[in-house]
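Exercise 7.
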Amino acid sequence: MKIAVIGANGQLGTDLVRAFESNGDEVSALSHADVEIADSDSVRTALQGIRPEAVVNTSAMHHVERCEENPEAAFRVNAIGARNLAETTADIGAVLIHVSTDYVFDGQKRQPYIEQDFPRPLNVYGNSKLAGEYFAGTLNPKHYVVRTSALFGKNPCRAKGGLNFVELMLKLARERGKVRVVDSEIVSPTATADLAKQIVVLTRSDNYGLCHATAEDSCSWYEFAKEIFQITGTKVQLDVAGPNEFPAKVPRPTYSVLENRALKASSLNCFRTWREGLRDYLGVRPEASVAVPA
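Solution. The predicted structure, written as tokens, is:
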């Protein structure tokens, strides 16, 4: 199958390219240098030249504070970019797989969100991503909108200073010997390698629409950090941070757990628990020096 991955040099994009190539697909790995999704002409030129059967869009402006400071730029990339991709993929008859976020919800439900729950973003980032979902869903009938959460992968995350949460925790443990992490925010940490495998499965299906795609089970950031340190055998003093110890500059949902109901209903869900994804991730880290327990 002919696949184009947009944002191919990012944290998720890198694993997507690897997963599709392992599946025997012909992959065009497109970075920002190859296509500017906010520019309709750039999108049209890039995709009409390749004419892929499916396009996966991982490109986004997802630094929450920067989105709040520059909403015009956030909407250009996250909303207009999705519109441009939806229009062009529809024109060439390609499937569009558009990656979105748990931040379309406000976190007030306190139970896992399903696809039918009404979105209510708390910030510019969430609103711009929700607008992108609507463009993708209305302009190309052959689409998947894939909402995910709390990604961590081997490739550096540029929007987070090159460190995902796992690497940040290990770095702080090495440098300080003590770490304080909030336990008031609940997520489903999702390995990019697992999400990439799920997206490959979606390209073999025609059950289009919106789906939640996260690791099974959930935890607080504190519990996630505790598991990281236990698996790696890291000696560190880990404490629960106070509720106002790290005040957020931008409102964020404190409960971001998604239920993969649509994937399960279609017998397409292939996610495992976040702990299993974390174990695999830690076992293949290039700098890993501690054996991961079986």
